[in-house]
Design goal:
The structure is a homotetramer. Chain A has an 8-stranded parallel beta barrel with strand order 1-2-3-4-5-6-7-8, surrounded by 5 helices. Chain A is α/β, with parallel strands linked by helices. The first copy, chain A, is built from 10 helices and 8 strands. Chains in contact: A-B, A-D, B-C, C-D. The interface between A and D is large, with 37 and 37 residues.
Chain lengths: ~210, ~210, ~210, ~210
Amino acid sequence: MFVLVNAKTYPCDVVEVAEAAREVNETTDARIAIAPQAAELAAVAETGVETWAQHIDPIEYGSNTGHTLAETVADTGAVGTLINHSENRLKLADIDGSVQAAERAGLETVVCANNAAQTGAAAALGPNAVAVEPPELIGTGTPVSQADPDIVKDAVAAAAAVDEDVEVLCGAGISTGDDVVSAGDLGAKGVLLASGVAKADDPKAALEDLVAPL
Amino acid sequence: MFVLVNAKTYPCDVVEVAEAAREVNETTDARIAIAPQAAELAAVAETGVETWAQHIDPIEYGSNTGHTLAETVADTGAVGTLINHSENRLKLADIDGSVQAAERAGLETVVCANNAAQTGAAAALGPNAVAVEPPELIGTGTPVSQADPDIVKDAVAAAAAVDEDVEVLCGAGISTGDDVVSAGDLGAKGVLLASGVAKADDPKAALEDLVAPL
Amino acid sequence: MFVLVNAKTYPCDVVEVAEAAREVNETTDARIAIAPQAAELAAVAETGVETWAQHIDPIEYGSNTGHTLAETVADTGAVGTLINHSENRLKLADIDGSVQAAERAGLETVVCANNAAQTGAAAALGPNAVAVEPPELIGTGTPVSQADPDIVKDAVAAAAAVDEDVEVLCGAGISTGDDVVSAGDLGAKGVLLASGVAKADDPKAALEDLVAPL
Amino acid sequence: MFVLVNAKTYPCDVVEVAEAAREVNETTDARIAIAPQAAELAAVAETGVETWAQHIDPIEYGSNTGHTLAETVADTGAVGTLINHSENRLKLADIDGSVQAAERAGLETVVCANNAAQTGAAAALGPNAVAVEPPELIGTGTPVSQADPDIVKDAVAAAAAVDEDVEVLCGAGISTGDDVVSAGDLGAKGVLLASGVAKADDPKAALEDLVAPL
């Protein structure tokens, strides 16, 4: 299972979270990565943890003031990027452009989607994975695997119907190892989570709990 | 074949174009519709021509100042709507919401897309049709069926792979009856065009030429 | 005092509201106008009431699918337009472009703003008026003149400091004639309101109450 | 004079540009700063050059995936930020929110504007400075001080009329020391430039030329 921790713009010590993740990663078969803010990518990558961006723009080198270039993200040591997170939704054509930009720069991609139909749509653009996150569950602490397990199953089916190589991650409300196991049982290959780790008093303990049952 | 004429915000007499379309429609097996600006929907629908909106928003009745509500569009007599035109691109989640809003109001939907991958993505959201329009050909007078026939074939295949009920229209550069025939030969069930009719000196003659070979 | 009723996308009979407004307008020194959805502009203008658009785009005649052209709005019989309503916020450059487009088409303009600083900014772009509407009060029924009278005074001062010809309207939470009087006492030349009239069981009675103390 | 170099997403070695700027800064009364991409802020700040962000978002600590937080920018060592660059235009309310966010985090602000009216509008929001950059001149190599000197004078007057503490920078087409001198003669307190330094074969020589006549 892939455990991708989105640190958002939380008031956390993201380097401490990153070091915890790197240490826990060595003790488990799970794969753990941290997605910090753009300005923190280099510092997080220096810890040795697998580092992801939270967003890239559908652009190339050139005149793009204030935008996030895939190549610059890759230069920091990051290896992947979220695209179209519910807090940063993109136009369809720009998701397509961002997936292509990531591919060009050698970044892995997880495109976020709200439901099964959007998961199928995102899968048609050829990312590595789609994270299905019903917006109404984000930040609630209620895992989608409990609140609405069908949405995960339907998303897995929708992605597979479009492109068998596109994996599905389960987002929204993941906070325990049981949630991760449930997500896997429903066909997800990983989880996307945020506050459960990034805002935990003890991020290392939170990560250890998450991967313990795997 | 479905011939959908997008009148954009051209300086044309859209009621005259609508009346021409209604008259030509009676002489052919093709199906002709006109998409005027929102403020002109009622006047165009009154001519008796099949009337489409150029855009709707992913909203319900409520506090949405300056937005286009599917139900209000339907109340004017319009029966369908474009969504995500390249001059009005939407976020993925908003295309999804707009398709659902149109369905709720009983409007047919044509979602626009730039290429085959986006056509597959749009098809996953369940519209009636997807119009594939490579942005670089819009307004050039060079039909996509000549400039890049594979993009139409690929789009037809991409839509069919996701949902066999979703038809493909061919946009960008259509101006003659031969272009319409070529589009049909490549698997398209219709064409989306604009200046070729809406800016023609004689819109009726332009439409007659378009449907003559059908 | 100018009483501008924004009908949003409420499920109201906007023509009935318009007729009520026209009738009440004849009985008072106040000036009453109705802002319906774009697709309803012509039907509202036909009632003879002063008609405003809820939004225009910063465009000219041309290729602008799904956008609202100032000239087309004027052709329906509308004489003014809201710009940058809090439910339809625009980029600074696009507010500038929209004010210019309205001027070109002979439409009056009311630019919306959240606070005194933004009122000054909007005034610098040369509209006829700025409507100050603290977002947290919109739809609450608590008039800004009660909840935060200083914001109205500060907005009037901010506009006057930039351009003495730019009037200030008071929005958010207006529902009674006393609210209108209070707004005037604070220096506003009118009010922008919505649900208090457009969603009233008896729009005519609601308007009569609003203008009674004037 | 303030010389602010926007490195955009150019394929340049921004640390080399930063080191050149730091060295030239020690030889002149001018004040030189570099604005790199967010992911490069820390590396640029480490060179000791004055470092600016290209953009911040109107947000606070919290759930804002993929956005740029003023506090995180300040934590890298940056001391200022561009806002509303023509390649990254913001809504009026978001310029206001971004200026407030910068102030909260202790960052200086330069808001970009296209013309004198927008310069006045931006000045009303209380930034440290406004950079006037006619979009049609950006990247042309034709300095606004030559192509349209009145726009600079008008912008200086518009800002001063609104708030005497808001300075004006001159952008678009600056590439020589004479351009900088001309900008100062027109009332500008600095220049905003990009390719002339960031894409120069020898950034240090380019900067030396720029500040030589000061």
